Structure formats: C-alpha cells, structure tokens
Amino acid sequence: MPTWDAATYLRFADERARPFRDLLARVGAERPARVVDLGCGPATLTATLAGRWPDAEVTGVDSSPEMVRAAAGVPGVDVVLVDVRDWRPDAPVDVLVTNATLQWVPDHLPLLARWAAALAPGGWLALQVPGNFEAHSHALMREVAARPAFAGALDGVLRRDAVADPAGYAEVLAAAGCTVDAWETTYLHVLDPAGEQGDDAVLAWVRGTGLRPVLDALAGDPELRDRFVAEYAAELRRAYPRRPWGTPLPFRRVFAVARRS
User: By the 8 A CB rule, do 115 and 260 touch?
Assistant: First the structure.
C-alpha cells in the first residue's frame, strides 16, 4: 500500500465524497447495530455513517498509519489500524462499506465472498471503486513510467487491471447468497474553478491518489521524482486543458450494493 497524505487527499473532498453519498443512498438499513468502513482513510466520510445511524457501533479500518492518525478523534467512530485483507469481525456486521479501497488490493474478489459471509442476516455490503484505469490520467502515468529514464525504478509499480466491472462484482456477491444491485457512473468533475492550481488541477488530484505509488518509489531520488512529475504534468496539461470555468475531469466509478438473504 502507498503512503498517504490526508491533507492532499482531502483537497478535493467534495468530489471524492459524491460517489460515497450515491453509494450509501442505495443502502436501506434502518437500525444497524454494527457498521464497518473498510479503508476508511481520514474517516471524514465514516463520520457520516455515525450520523446516519447514531445508535450503531461504527468502526473504521485502514492500513495507513497516516490516515489513522488523521482519523483520531472523529466523533462516533472507532478507527483501527488493520489491513483490510487481514480484517476479521468478531461478530456479524449489519452494514459493511468499502469505498475507493479495493483498487489497491490485488485479486480482491475472494475478499468479497468472505465479507458477505460476515454479514448478519439481512445485512448490507456496499462497495465503490474507481474504474478509470484506461483514462488519460492513468494511461499517461504508465506511459511516462515506461520511458527509459524511469522504467528501471518504476518496473512493476503501476497496475493496470485493478478492478472488475459491475457484472463481475454482481456475480461474486450473488454467488455468496446476496441480492445485488450493481452499476457504473461517469462523473464529470470540474476541478479548481477558482484557478488556484493553474493548469495542473488534474496533477493535484492524482497527487492524492493514483500518483502515490510513483512518489513512494522515487522518494529516494528527489531529482528523478521531480523530473517524472514535470514530464507527467506536461502530458496531463495536454490531455486535460483548463477552461475558463475550471478543468473538467471525467471519472468512471463502479458500484455494487448487496444484501444478504
């Protein structure tokens, strides 16, 4: 897992929160006793779960010490430092949420069957993952990483086939005994309308997420890291030109909401 910077991640908090809200709108739990957010990050969104279900025991799980520190003291949420692959509940869960996390977990489909089995009867599992790995933002990152100057240091750092399509998630969750609603949405985020990032709004966006593994891999060579960022930024400016009203960023996301019979 990459290292994280909560402040950088939250720079576009509203845009990152919208898919979470759309996901939770399809969860019909009324009075859950136990709610778990797997990959909770700084727990700003996990706090909304505590607000929706104030009588529930709400737990956030994350493998990043940086994010867990940022989440300390979030009202109504108990946050624990655990890799989601290692998490095991000590009692059935009524609502299990994982938002923009599973793209970091290779071969994560078997996890979903295990998590579905951890649900209480009638329990809900809700997931959302970015489905934009063929978008310019990611394709150009891989293209620059393959250039001779960077290929040695970045070999194997960036993954391509990170998530399934809606049907793939539906198949796994249905086989686990759940009723499933799966879909995808492409948002058009208008980044930085005030122009604070100049022509580099998309670069600022990926610094909080997809660029993290590259920054980690090149951390020991700041000159090479800065060269990579400069070359990648130039490609992003061509692919995502700033308009007078902001920088538009199309972003596909994949959703599934499952209820255990």
Answer: no
